[in-house]
Amino acid sequence: MKECINKKEKLINHINELKNQKNAIILAHNYQPREIQEIADFIGDSLELCIIAEKTEADIIVFCGVDFMAETAKILNPTKKVLLPEIVDSECPMAHQLPPEVIIQAKKEHPDAKVVIYVNTLASAKAMADATCTSANADKVVNLFEEDKILFGPDNNLAYFVEKRTDKKIIPVPKGGHCYVHKMYTLEDAKKVKAEYPDAELLIHPESNPELQDIADYVMSTGGMVKHVLNSPVETFIIGTECDMISRLNIELEKVGKSKNLVPLRSDAICKSMKNITLEKIETCLIEEKYEVNLDKEIIEKAKVAIDKMLSLNK
């Protein structure tokens, strides 16, 4: 056991040395395993990491997340080197549900609609959008437009969340777009865990099914969950999103000397793609400076317009 701890410490020390030598920064999504979150310079949801990526002065960005996230960092930092520690198994299945041809067809059918797409999409899709959004600001982004019709994708459950918060007609693209992790949750899950923890607040991510959103105490992004749990007087929370969100919450609670009872709505709600990054892969990534994210210049320029529209909300 002691040997394992020493090996891990050496690995972390080497990663930190490499970061300093190469002026690199490590960004980690809330769904990364705890040991990855702990060595990151910044942890966050998609919006928070977008903002950090845009402002960083680092020469190298190591993105511990999935493919579309690293692409977004590259779009915001086209002259910087953006690295993804794992390339083979880094795909976000939902991001691949909205290829450009689906957007092209939807625009033909609804030429008077604006296109707002989730940042959980590939750069080629972002390049066709009028704006991107995250689960933290989707309704606000939609309301930036005067048009009454909005093509919104790829997550249909997030589209439901937005439609309840705007007067606009939201047209989900594609039909059936979803996150397989959040699709796991059922009313039976909620009733079962709520019966076990009757005083707990149920926090549900807007990628979850409408029936879960409708009975939740709060429907919010992962960033919203952090703020809520830290500031709420409630002691027990049922967390309806990917399981390692509890790791992020515990890290933040420990920083301020607090402790809360955090219960996963389902213990098997795991994003497999998020678990493929390891400390060893981060070390290799920094040593060999792989795997670099490269995008076509035209796609970067077009996609940045859509991302900047979203980021204008924070300026």
Automatic annotation (TrEMBL):
<dbReference type="InterPro" id="IPR036094">
    <property type="entry name" value="NadA_sf"/>
</dbReference>
<dbReference type="GO" id="GO:0051539">
    <property type="term" value="F:4 iron, 4 sulfur cluster binding"/>
</dbReference>
<keyword id="KW-0963">Cytoplasm</keyword>
<feature type="binding site">
    <location>
        <position position="46"/>
    </location>
    <ligand>
        <name>iminosuccinate</name>
    </ligand>
</feature>
<dbReference type="GO" id="GO:0034628">
    <property type="term" value="P:'de novo' NAD+ biosynthetic process from L-aspartate"/>
</dbReference>
<feature type="binding site">
    <location>
        <position position="135"/>
    </location>
    <ligand>
        <name>iminosuccinate</name>
    </ligand>
</feature>
<feature type="binding site">
    <location>
        <position position="92"/>
    </location>
    <ligand>
        <name>[4Fe-4S] cluster</name>
    </ligand>
</feature>
<feature type="binding site">
    <location>
        <position position="29"/>
    </location>
    <ligand>
        <name>iminosuccinate</name>
    </ligand>
</feature>
<dbReference type="GO" id="GO:0008987">
    <property type="term" value="F:quinolinate synthetase A activity"/>
</dbReference>
<keyword id="KW-0411">Iron-sulfur</keyword>
<dbReference type="InterPro" id="IPR003473">
    <property type="entry name" value="NadA"/>
</dbReference>
<protein>
    <recommendedName>
        <fullName>Quinolinate synthase</fullName>
        <ecNumber>2.5.1.72</ecNumber>
    </recommendedName>
</protein>
<keyword id="KW-0408">Iron</keyword>
<dbReference type="GO" id="GO:0046872">
    <property type="term" value="F:metal ion binding"/>
</dbReference>
<dbReference type="Pfam" id="PF02445">
    <property type="entry name" value="NadA"/>
</dbReference>
<keyword id="KW-0479">Metal-binding</keyword>
<comment type="function">
    <text>Catalyzes the condensation of iminoaspartate with dihydroxyacetone phosphate to form quinolinate.</text>
</comment>
<comment type="similarity">
    <text>Belongs to the quinolinate synthase family. Type 2 subfamily.</text>
</comment>
<feature type="binding site">
    <location>
        <position position="179"/>
    </location>
    <ligand>
        <name>[4Fe-4S] cluster</name>
    </ligand>
</feature>
<keyword id="KW-0662">Pyridine nucleotide biosynthesis</keyword>
<keyword id="KW-0808">Transferase</keyword>
<feature type="binding site">
    <location>
        <position position="271"/>
    </location>
    <ligand>
        <name>[4Fe-4S] cluster</name>
    </ligand>
</feature>
<dbReference type="InterPro" id="IPR023066">
    <property type="entry name" value="Quinolinate_synth_type2"/>
</dbReference>
<feature type="binding site">
    <location>
        <begin position="205"/>
        <end position="207"/>
    </location>
    <ligand>
        <name>iminosuccinate</name>
    </ligand>
</feature>
<dbReference type="GO" id="GO:0005737">
    <property type="term" value="C:cytoplasm"/>
</dbReference>
<feature type="binding site">
    <location>
        <begin position="118"/>
        <end position="120"/>
    </location>
    <ligand>
        <name>iminosuccinate</name>
    </ligand>
</feature>
<feature type="binding site">
    <location>
        <position position="222"/>
    </location>
    <ligand>
        <name>iminosuccinate</name>
    </ligand>
</feature>
<comment type="pathway">
    <text>Cofactor biosynthesis; NAD(+) biosynthesis; quinolinate from iminoaspartate: step 1/1.</text>
</comment>
<keyword id="KW-0004">4Fe-4S</keyword>
